[in-house]
Amino acid sequence: MVRDAAPYFEAGGRAAAAVMAEELARLSLRDTSLVLAVQGAEPQGPLAEVARARGELRYLPLPPEPKPWDKVTTTPEQHAVLRDLIARVAPDVAAARDAVEALCEAYGFRPRELAQAAQRLALTGELSAETVRRLVGLGELSLVALEDALVARDAPAYLRFASALSAGAVLVGWRGEAVAPEAYGPVLVGMLGRLLRQALALRGYARRAGIAEELVPARCAQSHWYNAVFKRKLHKPLADIITPRVESPFGKASPWRLHHAFRLAAAYDEKELLAAIAELARSGAERTAPEMALAAVSAVVLELLAPSASTPTRRAAAG
Q: CB within 8 A of 96, min separation 6: which ones?
């Protein structure tokens, strides 16, 4: 496109962009795209002006850099772009809604990889979310997936986690480190036990702080609940009770960690939590072979996730 780019790079900054924009303005750019990665605001400057003058500027903001605890998601606008892309490169796939959603979930806002995956999926003739996951590969599994399944009381999500792990997916810890298969028992039991004990303790703390009525799953799942409700109204009463207590299972937990525990505590009553803690202790999963450890932990988790007599009551209260 530009015969000798060196002088333009040497010119630096805006001067280089201006020279490149002048060259681009002279060219016919049929079936050619110029992508500018910009975070925070619509692109400005000579390159953007060339595209704008042609009536071809399309601003698609990058998602904000995720926090370590965030799930990486696309915006609704980006999701729409990905769906349009799939429709262009693989029209048959676009008609299979579950497959489209699975592709977007697996690849996020990586259009080239997603387009290639959609084309491979079309060649298989099996247009399903299960096929997408198989083509993506087993990959890595985070311990966050286990916690999310518990908080949402989502048995299918946990089954997907356990199935992938048993099939050979790599388990990674909180810091992204791979967990050796022989350590599955201690790691899974340790995490599950800690989460259950924290949820049980938090129900007691909430009662002492006079905020037990906030332990409603649907209320905790509302948009902006963490900032609008937990940080403003619930964190301080909890922190005032928890901080002075040496026996607390939270230590110096951050507001974010406490809010996760609060949501988990809202999903179960004391009887369910106590039963799961006792069953986990009886399982001896931390001392068994990896495949047996996963089976033992799964038995405890699935029993906990099963609907109980108190579940309808909590849901009715939430409504």
A: 127, 128
Sequence-distant (≥ 6) Cβ neighbours of residue 168 within 8 angstroms: 138
What pLDDT score was predicted for residue 74? 73
Q: What is the pTM of this model?
A: 0.58
CA distances from 185 to 163, 267, 272, 315, 316 (A): 16, 25, 22, 33, 37
Question: In this predicted structure, which of 13-22, 144-153, 251-260 has the lowest mean pLDDT?
Answer: 13-22
* 187 within 8 A of 172, measured Cβ to Cβ: no
Question: What is the residue type of 56?
Answer: E
* pLDDT band per the 50, 70, 90 thresholds, residue 5: very low
Q: What pLDDT digit, counting tens, does each position of 59-89 carry?
A: 766 666 655 445 556 778 888 889 999 999 9
The pLDDT mean for the chain works out to 81
Question: Residue 147, Cα to own-chain centre: how many angstroms?
Answer: 11
Q: Would you state the pLDDT for residue 71?
A: 53
* DSSP state string for the chain: --S--HHHHHH-HHHHHHHHHHHHHHS--TT-------SSS---SHHHHHHHHTT-----PPPPPPPTTS-----HHHHHHHHHHHHHH-HHHHT-HHHHHHHHHHH-S-HHHHHHHHHHHHHHT--SHHHHHHHH-S-EEEHHHHHHHHHHT-HHHHHHHHHHHHHTPEEE-TTSPBPPGGGHHHHHHHHHHHHHHHHHHHHHHHHHHT-GGG--HHHHTSTTHIIIIIIIIIHHHHHHHHTT-TT-TTSS--HHHHHHHHHHHHHS-HHHHHHHHHHHHHH-GGGS-HHHHHHHHHHHHHHHHS--TTHHHHHHHH-
